[in-house]
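Appendix B, Record 12. Input sequence as logged:
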Amino acid sequence: RSYKDKDGNWQEETDWHRIVLWRRQAEVAKEYARKGSRVYVEGRLQTRSWEDQNGQKRYTTEVVGFDFQLLDSQGGGMSSGMSDDSPAEMTPPADMDVSPDDVPF
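Logged structural output:
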């Protein structure tokens, strides 16, 4: 997002998030997405915890992606690296429990 700083100069601010993708979407992201690439990700938030080497409990929140699209023009705007006429395989991971009650509308 863009904003003006206290001196009136335009600045660009970037947000970074941990994204989890599976199968073909992960392969496409690995091959074509680079640091700074603009992407569209739709998914659910997941928080995980673990114990670090010092015995402290750590947390991370990730977006588990259901839909992934490269927004930069390099791939011609294709969704998940596939042509627009081929359906994307949208199989969630086995540990993902999605029910109609999870949908907000």
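The chain has one helix and five strands.
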